[in-house]
## 1
Amino acid sequence: MYRHAITFILSLIVSGAMSMTVIANPGAAVAIAIHAGSGTIRKGDFDDAREQEVRETLERAVKAGHQILTSGGSSLDAVTLAITILEDSPHFNAGKGAVFNAEARNELDASIMDGSNLSAGAVAAVHNIRNPILLARKVMSDSVHVMLMGEGAEVFARNHGIEFEDDEYFFTDHRWQQLQKAKASANPEAYQLSESPDDWFSTVGAVAIDHEGNLAAGTSTGGMTNKRWGRVGDSPIIGAGTYADNRSCAVSATGHGEYFIRATVAHDICSRVQYQGISLGDAADAVINGQLTEMGGDGGIIAMDRKGNISLTFNTAGMYRASVDTAGTVYVGIYRDE
Ligand code: ASP
């Protein structure tokens, strides 16, 4: 089932680009958190069957990532695997379930960051890449650059054995209908900001800490429905949608990217933890419910600090989220009060 991610991770090990984690501190607690978007998600918006499938996919992804951690794997591998599972689901706005842009194309962004050495990889505005997070990881491990975009990123992908899919693979009726509604609305470019049940962001992301105490974060998205061709959101921007630094925390964001970029949300949370010495929860609250909300931005984050504390903070009605904390407790949530 996780064929692509596992093959990819093995290829990195074999090529020597990545060495298997040596467990320096086997007693250290591991933890992982994931999200699959935030927004106007209210009970009754979805039928029971869809809600059940979403919950099951979140649980499967978070448990698969956790399994990597408990068997001695790295936080980078855990984050990568969890995100590929979410990208392979038609329910979330990343990989297979990506939204359509204004040209009726699926244009994908992703990034990943290693908190142990601040290395990072990102791709923006790529097409037909089955798992953009694997391409972002390749950019990190096999190039001297942090971000590749568009055609150049796709050539790099072909040269590095990254899997492509045809346009049909990415077609979902649900996303197609969203595009039609957006195009028919009075103010198409502001469609995502309307008070409609479709008004939600469903980018995916993960943060984790491994046995060595290394933090990692990753994010993958199709961006926003009806976005302009070439528009890049926060998800592939290191410091905005993704950040990880062992000295502070790891963050992955979802929401209205234009606001997250200007507020440098992910980095701001880590900076507050590092320089103000405040708790992860307080830092996330100050940025999401303070700064971002004051600017008028909607969305949320998942974050983890160097002790494995988790924050799942959003200023919207709901956020698809799941975690396994340092005690091994599994949590899955969609709505605000659960
Ligand atoms: N943050 C993403 C973007 O602006 C959208 C999302 O979170 O769904 O591209």
## 2
Amino acid sequence: MPDEALDLDTPAEELPPDDARELVATIRAEIARHDRLYHVDGHPEISDARYDRLFQRLQEVEKRFPHLQSDTSPTQRVAGEPRGELPTLPHAAPMLSLDSTQDPEEVRRFLDRMRKALGSDEIEYLLEPKLDGVSLELVYERGVLARAVTRGNGREGEGVIDNVRTIPSVPLRLREADRGTPEFLSVRGEVLMSLSAFEALNEELVKAGVEPYSNPRNSASGALRQLDASITARRPLQCLAYDVLEVRGPTFRSDEEVVGALREWGFPIPERVRTVRSVDEILEYHAAFERDRDSLDYEIDGIVVKLNGLRERTDLGATAHHPRWAIAFKFEPRKEITRIERIVIQVGRTGVLTPVALLLPVEVGGVTVSRASLHNREELERRDIREEDLVRVQRAGDVIPQVVEVIAEEGRTRAAPFSMPDRCPECRTPVQTKGPFTVCPNRLACPAQLKGRLSHFASREGLDIEGLGSETASLLVERGLVTELADVFDLEEQDLLPLPGFAEKSARNLTAAIRSRRTTELRRFLYAVGIPEVGSAVAGDLASHFGTLERLWDAGEEDIQDVGGVGPRMAEQIRGFFQEPANRAAVARLRDRMEALTVPTGESPGGPFHGRRFVFTGTLESMSRSRAKELVEDAGGRAVSSVSGETHFLVAGAGRGSKLEAARKLGVTILSEQEFLAMLADAGIGL
Ligand code: IVH
């Protein structure tokens, strides 16, 4: 219906209920259509004023007739209440990553391998730009947006539907299409922030005294993971769809058909999607995109070459990380020439002194670069980089900008070689040399190390405290508000208000974010306190093995080595950390302020099979293998898929396999199904 014919004027109170229902349905469909025309097709048909009028009218009528409200109404794109934290949700199918290369020869070899494996020379490839954004899964149930999940670890990610609803180009409901509405649809896409929006946002942040984002991808990622959807709503994000992870209903033979369907269902898709048959066409496509790269308003870092046929894809399959039917053909990282103004020393959380080049700001592929790490003393000497040198810098993906080379300038006298300082620039303690590194040994009292520890503590893999980034961490240390990590939990709104960049709301949000972390997963806590050598994965293993901080704390080196993946050196470091009185005291003070350190169920320690690894092979008669695994995990054990030196038991069902051989060789205890059942019974586990 032409929307001029819509009744926008009768006061809502006077509308008969049936008319209201019809009007609401019609306006919603109209708004969805105009959203698509504007955000997806780029061909708006009505003025902004007319659009706003439609929107207001819908709000008016929904308000008067609340029973007509619906999650798929465009009015629901408007953010609701902030959340405490984002839920972890599983993906409908694993979200794999892509194998990648910059080398055309390697692309050729990849295509050869694929042709050989498929036994055919007549293969079609689908080409797309490789969008440099944040990967996202969108799930539609009976055509309605039901879930939106970040990639996370590929199997599960963070649920961000409230935020995603605010992205205008994401359909809340699939458009009616000839091929019908699927019962279930999981779409993979990429969330992007345009370069122009990114720059505008950074300008705003700088004005507000907040640290700007380093590139559009981080900025899109930050926006997507907000706890308060009204912040996401103010960040102009787009989402382009490029893959179907799972669908029930329609069937497809090729990726081309998939992309066609995505378009019909109302998703924006990447530009210039093409199918080709030859390597030359692929190289040409790559070259053309690389040429046009700087004129695009969004970041791409290469192209993706995919097998078009879906049956062939199934034949080729995937490794644990990436499919065998696609490859990312990346561009050369962008390089620019600029001058080093000064070399300064940065002191990190572990006390390592890093030389950093301060550059005359230069734009590298749309992003301004003004500093680059020079790594360590040895690197600096080897490459002989000096202050005032002319250098070529590059920015590759999320890697921090690098100095590629020094450019010789004839007739110009260079500055003297740079030498590392004798004292820590932050606390004046004499430094020590450790291999290629220079280290400040003043662990506890050096303010720079505390700043680093604090931002590590609050970081995403640590306690994930929203609003406590490196800038704020520095401020808190400089103002003496935090003199050790435990102080974070004593911060009050009044302490924050005088800090630059803080107002009532941000102070309230930060203290609330900190408070919400008084209950934290033990694994995050162990990562956050900064035990040497302990990254996020090891922290997770330690947490599920020991179950409580106290048990780890008193564990000997040998106990620690029982944890899979922890070798003697690491065990020594961990034990050493907890042995040192100052560390013990600092961790204890921190612990006192926490309400609970949790270990998710399934990893619960102390179960009868705690710390035991099981592998299953062959067919079990009394239960399915997945049920058997579940029982093991419920009892605190771990069911893993392959036999290694760390396996405790191999449960051998009917039919022998290579796992049995491996277990014998490694001296792993082999259990028959009967023995396994007896073990369960002994442990008091009913089937
Ligand atoms: S296909 C399993 N197509 O690149 C294959 N990925 O390095 C699914 N990406 O995490 C990916 N543009 O987020 C595909 N046109 C495109 C893409 C694309 C960007 C991202 C994706 C993935 C990363 C892999």
